[in-house]
Model the fold of this input.
Amino acid sequence: MTFKPAAWPRKLRSQTWFGGTSKDNIYHRGWMKNQGFPPDLFDGRPVIGILNTWSELTPCNAHLRDLAERVKHGIYEAGGFPVEVPVFSASESAFRPTAMMFRNLAAMAVEEAMRGQPMDGCVLMVGCDKTTPSLLMAAASTDIPSIVVTGGPMLNGYYKNERVGSGTHLWKFSEAVKAGTMTREEFVDAEASMSRSPGSCNTMGTASTMASMAEALGMALSGNAAIPAVDSRRRVMAQLTGRRIVQMVKDDLKPSDVMKKEAFENAIRTNAAIGGSTNAVIHLLAIAGRVGVDLTLEDWDRCGRDVPTIVNLMPSGKYLMEEFFYAGGLPVVIKRLGEAGLLHKDALTVSGESAWDQVKDVVNHNDDVILPADKALAKSGGVVVVKGNLAPKGAVLKPSAATAALLTHRGRAVVFEDIDDYKAKINDEDLDIDETCVMVLKNCGPKGYPGMAEVGNMGLPPKILRKGITDMVRISDARMSGTAYGTVVLHTSPEAAAGGPLAVVQNGDMIELDVPNRRLHLDISDEDLAARLAAWKPIHPLYESGYGWLHQRHVEGADTGADLDFLKGARGNAVGKDSH
Ligand code: FES
Done:
């Protein structure tokens, strides 16, 4: 750790709005007084923006207004001036065509909200899948001191006395309905049991993964990720976060001081240890792109290889986030990485302490939830990156959620040209498919869907499910929900809609997946592949206006994080004409 706190007191950026007696200063300050703020709040103390993704249509974040009050308490206690600001909230469960299409829009809007308004520091109040990366991307681009506090996961779900995990059981129940072992009435009955309290998905899905990534990156206080949304200690965490951001502003501890390459490597290894979502690959690549860290898909494969998956949570394992919290949560996992020589111990965190110092004394309270290494769910739990003529820029697979026997597989391609084609054919009893085939889904990437939907774990045909078979090799340019599972090759790059080789796979082609050798091969000659690619034409028209127009023309590939090309990099916090 080489960070040296800045001298305090000094003039903060908010004073260019609120200090002085010019007409503009009075305009900025005077109008704020209609809310009843006493004059001394404008005296040069840190102004902290509480960037709140609260929304009743983002149900996982619907309790964040309440939590924001605790953040405010903490900010006032530490001598700051809190201002709560609603920001774009991309709900995973409600946004169409997909929340992912709006992650970058949210990041762009939040970046401008941070830069263009009088904020010296920011508390990023997030929870649902896309809200966490979008606000971290914004913070990285402005480099304004920022700290994450998440809303926390929902309590355990139970149905007929069995644990029910958000998302994970949605897939299981829907396949059971298809297989005829569950009625639709039971399915409807089960839905309330999945979501029985405020909070985000209670599995190690994308929301819990990204909360863990924020903590592992050092951007949230230690222990933040797993505290249930309704636990009183979540409120304590919010209050402590409010206190901490004030000191971070005084010290000038910025995202670029915390999110170094070492921090990303810590996060990648943490992702492997928790059996985290493949979505973290895209989000961390995008965040790294904003903060100027050279992170690649190869880093994911390299760093994750030696890390066992020790967190026994759905979808890879059997427990839920509530039990993870009782066992000790993410600090225990980070400590285990440190003990195994898999942690950059000196990495700085928002607490001001190193990654190691803040976890070295924690204790595991349940070794069936956080497993010993010799009982790991997967010995090599990291996200695997496969390449080959079918994915020249790479594709990813999560071994801990896959069937080991299918990790080396050769099969006949059954092709779905897009998600509508899949939906039209998958229930057809005459579909020419058996369990040895490889299901291929195209045009679901960042540009294609658009927005890279979580449809890569496409359900199996009912006639195969009825045989009791629950997994097949599936390949697409889509993403997969972090709550899902299966031998699923995702994020194939370049995507089909950008003219990648995936676009020209035909029914009957043979495909080889060889995870041990990191290979994904379409078994046709180079000449045939070149001829098919030369004849390829996109099958979907592009948006002609609006944000869709911007997204489809500027979104990059999944292999680099699917950010908009013109948003990459840090732009700082200076406003062109901020010297009124
Ligand atoms: Fe919001 Fe899972 S849908 S956290």
Notes: The first helix runs from residue 15 to 18. Residues 60, 92-93, 128-129, 166, 200-201, 205, 207 surround FE2/S2 (inorganic) cluster (CB under 6 Å).
